[in-house]
Amino acid sequence: MKPDREFQTLVERYVDGQATAEQVAALSERLRRDAAARQWFIELLNLDSALAAVALGSIAGMDDSDASPQTPIEITAADSTPSPTTTPSTSPAPAPMPESGSASTMFFRLLAMATCVMALVGGAWWWKASTSDFATVRGGVGVEGLADGRGLRDEWHEFDAGAVELVTANGARVVIEAPARFRFESAQRLHLIEGRLAADVPPTAKGFTVITPTGKATDLGTTFGVDIQQQGEAEIHVFEGEVIAQSAGGGQRRSLRDGEAFLLQNGAGASRRLRTAAFIRPEEVGSMHAGLKAGQHARSAAALAKLRQDPALIALLDFESRELTEGSFGIAQGRWPGSRAPEFANVGDHMKLDVGGSREWPQLTLAAWVRLDRLGETFQSLLHTDDWNENKPGQVHWMVTRHTTMRLALFGNTLAPNSEEREDFPDSRTSVLPEQGRWMHLAVVYDSARRTVRFYLNGAFDKQTHQATAHTARLGAAQIGNWDRQDRKLSGRIDELVVLGRAMSDEEVRLLFDAGTPYR
Amino acid sequence: MPNRDEDRHQQFLRAFTTHEPAVRAFVRRLVPSRADADDVLQEVAIVLWTKFDEFRDSGDFRAWACGIARFKVLSWLRDKGRDRLTLDSDVVELIAVDSIRHEPHLQRQRDALETCFEKVPSAERELLARAYQPDTKIHDVAANSGRSVGGFYQWLYRMRQMLLECVQRVLAGESLS
């Protein structure tokens, strides 16, 4: 039952804070004695709240039919973790649990919680500080035309190389990696037609929405990634928090929790494995930018040029050639803006190569820049020769094990007595886990005469393992990223692979890392 | 037991995030402005967390939170009521009781608003959204839209009435099918 016009006006004035003392008193009186009027009042104020919630997630004219030709798919993410701004690390690694000091830990959590809750309920104080720009460029790596401090409004941006970090007016931190095409419709709505995006969404930016060619993603405060694949379908990866995805054509809403990923297809979708390495996160951009500014790209090129002159070089793959090597893999950006790196994402993805011929190598150095996904209980193949059998002792298998350490296995080699290895092969000591999702440098040096295997992580010597039997190394036909005979998949990118027929010294490995690192 | 603290913390945040819009809407019906609701909700959130150990997992978080929010609103009315134009506290109690009774219906109305909001022509939708941003100065929004302040409030009234009717129509349609 709709109440009289006079009462409606009274309520409307009260809702907007326009009512006088007499009007508020009159309203009280009417609400006290008239249940139907009270019901209408409750519904209008209920609408006021709902309107405020909807408005937070949408402030501009939205429809962009040319950009989203298909029925949108909606994803809603619900935060179940403290705000990224109050979490010490936003990397997907579960923060190590403190062994003791639970009282202070509890205090910290409470503090973080209170901050988070206050931010949640306190509304967008960011808004006050914001300019009329929807977002501001806060950093980047090699993107032309999007300089630091530039404000973005409702216009398209496109870049083929690099990555850009943006902070929206509501405080969401967004990194977009090339090749990319995007446009902000408002501080809370971002169109992404092409590219990869990682977002840290604090409670102040609750409702932040990414619209992709196959749908839109509305986030309620979490960290997540969106990867638009070549077919235009978007993959949603949830690093922390909770996401509810809805397929086009009125599909079921689907909840994705921490560590889950989902491929959005028109009218359907499919589960995917989380790929942490696929996304450049906000915390990575600063050191990549500093690395580029410091001239790392040129240093790397110079080091590679020198290495190409090394008479012992067997192979140096930088993957920049447009002629693709045989195999099944994608191409993503390498360590430098606009550079190329093969990316292995699907089961069975691999790259074939045939290096070293039938020669035997008394010494061997293998080195690579890789960006690995966190896979849990599987091996990640770096280089697996095909002929792993007793007729070919010395065949090389190089990988990251399920214990997240590096392994160099040569067929027929045996460990020296009293080796600390848990299995039958030389393994590195330090876990690569903290580096997963970032570029890291792996190297191993084998010397059959000395019967040693020396491991290096990010240029630093890690460990030496002695072998009792040490065959000369054999290469030949091999695969990167997979081994057909057992589950040896690589999930991530590999940017540079060096195969050298001599033993590099500790200093040489360190210099190789120093020259090649994209970080500062 | 950091693990248990962590779990509890996660449980709380999950529950709070899930029910926060409903609790916020509940508080909003009892206080004069959305900003007042924000103030009260901030205090409510802290009480909810400190008392979360008393809350049983099998319980209804929303009802529990609304119960605490009701007390917080009443004490807020006592403290701030003299400086503000608030409804009488007995009326606020009546509204609270009715609100809790009709919450499922009100929840459906809030859900339906999204559909109705999308139907508003984009220019007006944007204006409405601007008027509803936190800390917006209505004077500025009105000026930008080329309306007088009084004219803008009139326009807001009409929009809300239209949306409320739309929401009611959507729910009526749902109950038929």
Question: What value does the average pLDDT of chain B take?
Answer: 86
Named CATH architecture of the largest domain in chain A: Sandwich
CATH architecture assignment name of the largest domain in chain B: Orthogonal Bundle
Question: H/E element string of chain B?
Answer: HHHHHHHH
List the chains of the largest interface with their residue counts. A-B, 70 and 70 residues
Number of structural domains of chain A: 3
Classify the secondary structure makeup of chain A into a structural class. Answer: alpha+beta
Number of helices of chain B: 8
Give a topology summary.
The complex is a heterodimer of chains A (520) and B (177).
Chain A: H1 5-15, H2 21-33, H3 35-56, E1 74-78, H4 102-122, H5 125-129, E2 135-141, E3 151-152, E4 156-159, E5 163-168, E6 173-186, E7 189-200, E8 208-212, E9 215-220, E10 223-228, E11 234-240, E12 242-246, E13 253-257, E14 260-265, E15 268-273, H6 282-293, H7 296-308, E16 313-317, E17 327-328, E18 330-333, E19 340-344, E20 350-361, E21 363-372, E22 380-385, E23 396-400, E24 406-410, E25 414-415, E26 439-447, E27 452-457, E28 460-469, E29 473-480, E30 492-500, H8 506-516
Parallel strand pairs in A: 1-9, 7-8
Antiparallel strand pairs in A: 1-12, 2-3, 2-5, 4-6, 5-6, 6-7, 7-10, 8-9, 10-11, 11-14, 12-13, 14-15, 16-30, 17-20, 18-19, 19-30, 20-29, 21-26, 21-30, 22-23, 22-29, 23-24, 25-28, 26-27, 27-28
Chain B: H1 2-28, H2 34-50, H3 61-80, H4 89-101, H5 103-119, H6 122-131, H7 138-145, H8 149-176
Helix pairs in contact in B: 1-2, 1-3, 2-3, 3-4, 5-8
Task: Walk me through the structure.
The complex is a heterodimer of chains A (520) and B (177). Helices cover 21% and strands 37% of the residues of chain A. Chain A has 520 residues and is α+β, with helices and mostly antiparallel strands. Chain A folds into 3 domains: 52 residues; 187 residues, Jelly Rolls (Sandwich), CATH 2.60.120.1440; 222 residues, Jelly Rolls, CATH 2.60.120. In chain A, the strands form 3 sheets. Chain A has a 15-stranded mixed β-sheet that branches. In chain A, a hairpin with a 2-residue loop joins strand 14 and strand 15. Chain A is elongated. About 13% of the residues of chain A have low confidence. With 177 residues, chain B is mostly helical. Chain B folds into 2 domains: 101 residues, Rna Polymerase Sigma Factor, Chain: A (Orthogonal Bundle), CATH 1.10.1740.10; 75 residues. Helices cover 79% and strands 0% of the residues of chain B. Chain B is built from 8 helices and no strands. In chain B, helix 1 packs across helix 3 and helix 3 packs antiparallel against helix 4. At the A-B interface, helix 1, helix 2, helix 3, helix 4 and helix 5 of A face helix 1, helix 2, helix 4, helix 5 and helix 6 of B.
